[in-house]
Amino acid sequence: MTIDIRFRGLPNSELLRDHIIRRIRLQLRRLGKALGAIVVRLSDINGPRGGVDKRCQVMLVRPGQRPLTIEEVNEDAYTAANLAVERAAQAAGRGLARGRSHRRRRSDDAKVVLA
Q1: Going by C-beta distance under 8 Å and a sequence separation of 6 or more, which residues neighbour residue 93?
Q2: Residues of the domain holding 30
Q3: CB neighbourhood size of 97 (10 A)
């Protein structure tokens, strides 16, 4: 799994980058090889005007599936990143569980048809 973190309109902060990597590893480690890559985009929507304008987009690239993108906006970049990574982990976990139950049902149906 590769992690790509991009800053747009925000200074490239090694502290923030390290924080996001720690959060991703903590929240998404259980998904293991189900993820091909994670792309995190941090941006300042309003520029220097201030306000609730730090956006964090987390895109999970899963082999054989469409990418899953989660976005959070907050006045603090750390908070936006924490919330986005947490929501992405929850959504990916649901998708993975749904895929497993769907495969089981299909294989059970196939056994009934062949019997």
Answers
A1: 30, 31
A2: 2-114
A3: 10
The answer to whether the predicted template modeling score (pTM) of the entire model surpasses 0.85 is: no
| Residue pLDDT, tens place only, 77-101 | 999 999 999 999 998 887 655 555 5
Whole-angstrom Cα distance, residue 3 to residue 6? 10
Domain count, the chain: 1
pLDDT in tens, 37-90: 999 999 998 877 766 789 999 999 988 888 999 999 998 999 999 999 999 999
CATH of the domain at 84: 3.30.160.100
What CA–CA distances, in Å, run from 77 to 19, 21, 30, 94?
Answer: 11, 14, 25, 26
Q: In whole angstroms, give the CA distance from residue 63 to residue 95.
A: 13
Yes or no: say if 39 and 59 are a contact pair by the CB < 8 Å rule: yes
